[in-house]
Amino acid sequence: MNVELQINNSTNTRARFVSWIPSPCRIRITNPSGATSPHGMNIKLSSVSAANGSEVVFRKGTTGAFSSTLTLSVPINGTSVPFFVAGRFGHPSTNNGDVRIEARLGNALVGSVKLMVRVRKNANNLTTAERDRLVAAFAQLNNQGAGRFADFRDMHTNISSPQAHGAAGFLPWHRAYLLDLERELQNIDPSVALPYWRFDQPSPNIFTLDFFGVSNTLGTVQFSPTNPLQFWRTDSVPGINRRPFFATNTAPPGLRTETQTLALGNAYPAFRTMEGNPHGSAHVSFGGFISSIGTAARDPLFFLLHCNVDRLWAKWQRQFNRFDPAVAASYDGAANPIGHNLPDTMWPWNGITTPPRPPTAPGGALASSPCVSAPGPQPRVRDSLDYQGVINSVSCLGFDYDDVPFA
Amino acid sequence: MTTKRKATKKSAKPRSTRAAMSVATSKSKPIKERVAALAEVPLAVCESDKDLQATLNVLRNQDEPIEVRLAALQSLQAASFSVVAFESCRADYIAALRKVATDPDPELRQRVLGILAREKDGFVQKKLLEGLKNPTKALVPAEKALQLLSYDIHSEAYSVARKIVENPPNEDAKLEALRLLAADAKSAPVFEKLLRDKNENAEIRQISAAALQALKPERLQSNARAILLDDSDHDDIKATSLTALTQFGDAEAVAKDETLKKQVGKISEKGGAKVKRSARHFMSKYGR
User: Fold this and answer.
1) Range(s) of the domain holding residue B167
2) How far apart are CA A200 and CA A106, in angstroms?
3) Domain co-membership, A254 together with A379
4) Inter-chain residue contact B179 with A287, CB threshold 8 Å
5) Confidence at residue B288, expressed as pLDDT on a 0 to 100 scale
6) Which pLDDT does position B13 carry in this prediction?
7) pLDDT digit string (tens) for A218-272?
8) Which of A140, A221, A285, B21 has the smallest number of Cβ neighbours within 10 A?
9) Residues A98 and A246 placed together within one structural domain of the fold
10) Nearest CA of chain B to the CA of A278: how many Å?
């Protein structure tokens, strides 16, 4: 007997990625030979971890507790049986395929599939292999200035900045932006998740020659000869300018801590003041590209900084249950500029180039994912809120943070 | 005891924007307190013209302690990220920056010139070029001026950079001039020459490789190959060459190049730690 296991309801090997969010899965018997019952066979699913690998847990339906094993009655006529898989919180993967789901009939192995619990982690704590895969994917995306990264650089400029800053849509816009970039990185290497720079904590491992580089006194970032980011190029100029105004084995001074940021208030308008401190303050704790809106996205560190801003929003959403766009405190209901109201589509993914939108829309539609269908090619502001699919499972954006649980 | 408890309670409570601004702009308060207050509420300047003008005054005032002026600059910069809210402040902000661009304090001057250069400010570009042509008028060292000019390269900057590469005041200036010229297709032969010069320092050869890879990738590929086959060349530039071929090389051509693969196999066993690592990445992509 053989069974087929589909992760994220897909046979595509690139869909074999889960996070803390329950992923819809299916099992079906593809070869019933040896079946003893004409109706259904009891197949037991379990999680088998590689050394230092991750763990997954199972449940039968959309609600209820997860468990480390699950037994399902699977018809022999090939009909699929649904179930859900999630990474066990606190046990993410470090390598693709470091956890396996095994399907057994009695003691006999009748099917298995390797997958990855892929979540966004603290960049300071990545393994060497995770770090190397990330910088290689960034370098490939940049492709010495000729790659797809140029679109991401062009999305975040002085001209386009009113679409993304200074109003309620600041957090939703950047969530979509990071997701688009992360999916492009995953098209290069599916084992990569965008990590975050926890700017309220010392992060010495980020500012090294083998990772995001070491700045000389002038602010020119230096890389080891083995680091592909030495070929980084934006606006036709090679290299990165970044001059830290703090010792990089410490946290920048004057920034609100995570605790202080989460305590800004339980309604979105109060929380959004984090756009100034810690967000703006983190940017200007350096000189160089990252310290001005028009050039910030030329530095790949920008994406790690914003990943932490997004993580803080995710943590705040979890703390106050602010996922539902229909709940007033989840967003700012005041009249906002276009692109900042819940029903508005977001530039540039909507392709609109008539005023007050910017005159060009680089990059086209938001990248799709083999794992989830949201937010679609032209996301609206509201599509950024329920990123875990808490209110509606189809809204799930397919990413998670290592320290923000699903429930 | 009561007094102590009261003091603790007071410091734990977040202060209002008004209270923070009052401390930030008060010359009688200690520097540390003023710096902390300025960092606390960057968006205050967007909400009140009075607070904006007070912060700009601190920035412009040469009698203020430099730490407080730098903190005022950082606070304004952080606020500038809230574009929509900051729009009404922008004109005053840019005018103040231009005034401070010639400030006697070198650190403040450098930071302000950086902000304006990133805004592609014509006034600053002119000042930087003037300083490169006539060092007595320089607002910042040549290497910094070249770095700042690279935010918006004009042909005039290329000719100045070429002269600096030929006759550099120091190694940093040469590096920054090369970085600027890396956008200039005419400079490809210069980069090729520097890349192959074993007497050049590692950083200059590294930037030359990056520039050549972008300007003439086929020349980088053939030079990288030659460097790898040369047993007398340095490990650092071999590691850079391997990284270029692994990440951006013509995969089909490299995969067929048995001589190169054999040599990289040798490097992966006998080279230093860095070059061995690059060689292993190369071998995992192209095989033995």
Assistant:
1) 101-181
2) 51
3) yes
4) no
5) 63
6) 52
7) 999 999 999 999 999 999 899 999 999 999 999 999 999 999 999 999 999 999 9
8) A140
9) no
10) 9
Contact B84/A279, CB-based, under 8 Å?
A: no
Closest Cα partner for B134 from B102, B160, B113? B160
Nearest to A291 among B77, B83, B274 (CB): B77
Average pLDDT of the residues in B227-253 = 94
pTM beyond 0.90: yes
Q: What is the dihedral of CA A338, A342, A344, A348, to 10 degrees?
A: 90
Measured between CB atoms, does A28 come within 8 Å of chain B? no
* Boundary residue ending a domain (A72, A101, A117): A117
Q: Which tokens in the block code for residue B11? A: 């410091």
Answer whether A356 touches B (CB < 8 Å). Answer: no
Go through chain A and tell me how many residues it has.
407
User: Domain holding A103: CATH number?
Assistant: 2.60.40
**ipTM for the assembly:** 0.89
CB-facing half-sphere around the CA of A109: CA atoms within 13 A: 9
Name chain A contacts of B213, Cβ cutoff 8 Å: 144, 231
Q: Which of A292, A306, A340 to mutate to test the interface with B (most CBs of B within 10 A)?
A: A292
Structural domain harbouring A146: 123-395
* Contact status, residue A307 vs residue A120, Cβ threshold 8 Å: yes
Cα nearest neighbour of B13 on chain A: A260
Q: Tokens 């903190």 correspond to what residue?
A: B71
Question: Chain B neighbours among A 72-131 (CB < 8 Å)?
Answer: none
Interchain CB contact of B276 with A (< 8 Å):
no
Tokens of B177: 């001039």
- The secondary element (H helix, E strand) that includes residue A221 is strand A221-222
Whole-angstrom distance, CA of residue A389 vs CA of residue A372: 11
The letter for the amino acid at A33 is S
Looking at beta carbons, which residues of chain B come within 8 Å of A236? Answer: 153, 182-183
Q: What residues of B are in contact with residue A292 (Cβ under 8 Å)?
A: 77, 80, 115, 118-119
